[in-house]
Amino acid sequence: MLPTNAGLGFKPEHFPAVIETKPPLGFFEVHAENYMGAGGMPHAMLERLRADYALSIHGVGLSIGGADPLDKTHLARLRSLCDRYQPESFSEHLAWASHGGEWMHDLLPLPYTDETLDIVCDHIDQLQEALGRKMLLENPATYLTFVQSDIPETDFLAQIARRTGCGLLLDVNNVFVSCVNHRTDPRAYLRAFPIEAVGEIHLAGHETEELPSGPLLIDSHGREVSEPVWGLFAETVTEYGPRPSLVEWDNDVPDFATLMTEASRAEAILEDARHALAS
Amino acid sequence: MPSHREFAQAFQSALRDTALPPGAHTQAPEELTRRFNVYRNNVAHGLAQALQRHYPAVTRLLGEECFSGVAHLYIERHPPRTPILTEWGVEFPNFLGGIETFSHLSYLPDVARIEWARSRAYHAADLVPVESSQLTQIAETSYLRLHPSVQTLWAATPAGSLWISQQPGAAAPPAAEDWTSEVVLVARQGLFDVITTVIPPATARLIEALLSDTPLGAACAAAGSDLDLTQALTLLIRYDLITAISQGRPE
Fold it and tell me: Which of A31, A256, B7, B41 has its CA at 20 to 30 Å from residue A86's CA atom?
């Protein structure tokens, strides 16, 4: 289990600052696929980081929502990465990234149907079996929906958690992005979310594009967390209790101090939620 | 209703097509293409960026705009077959060599080969160099095991000097009338430092013989009479590239 504190997505350019200043963070998160070489700098940094901090390994390439069987080689690589670093948490996405042996390297959306529910549950069973541990599954940011979807996303996630025993990673920015894009109410989504299964929360920044029908939000991970997302985060942890909470900033990465400002804000909100819970 | 397999197939095709995947929906249907374009852009931009990270000197030589155009052609022809982006792009040097517009840039594929070798060296396994006290054991019958990052590249152009000239603060590249072929050593010293240096052909032949488990005496013979053995061994020792010395064939 990750500590119930704020964490940051690790960026190699921040390594010297992290080692020198030993910032008071609950954990760091890394993308699994960036640590699959044999050796060199990436592993040297991750080992050093791991010695001082709790670790979350976050996969982006397994294509859990894909129509193809999971890639056995990739499963084995994830297994050996988890064996080597013994992370407190492993997570992946409700999305797909490959088809027919080709990887698109993006988190692509899927329709929510009985067929895809079976596929996703089957893939998660296989992954949890291969890793010998429970995983967390993250809700996606989406830009369109599918007419063939006949299960709401929150129900889909709840059924996956129930059938596979996996936990969920609640990305509050993804909730806000998707709900604004689909003109639905993020608070209603959060009320319907199977919150008891949530083992981690993600926070990130998004871009806004104005379309004639209204805003189109894009999950860019390239700026500060937006005010409405901070608000939804605070409401969620105040109502349901604090969770390990990660700030992601993957593009146009700023200096480490800027990331720490974001992490400190998340920690302050978690602290308020702990007080609210105690009183 | 399409099966999930049919859906994924159609969605994947739509990423590089003008059609939209079956069932794609939004409340303002006239904005559907704009919304689907977010996925198209994410895929194209993400992959082009990844290729640029592999090939920074080629990017500087071509300019970002031109590189981006080439990257999109490459993505169409050689899409990733791996979930690990650092493993994607091995065919790029040959792909550059096949582009007619660049036929006057004969050095470009060689510079790209150097960059791919550097990326492999960066991620190569970690092996510690032998202690300097062990170096006295080196004899004609010794097998020298080299660091797994060690690679030699033979270029018909001064690709090594050109690559070096693209680095910050480096001297200008050689003038075109002084161009010669070059052999380049790419390897990693310790955990971090990827080195790129031009070496004599005989040194490269020695290194290649050592890499194929030939004992030092025979490797010297394979390298040819113009080998400067002291210079070659000094190079390998200076960059910490000898990781084992054994008198029998290594396991």
Answer: A256
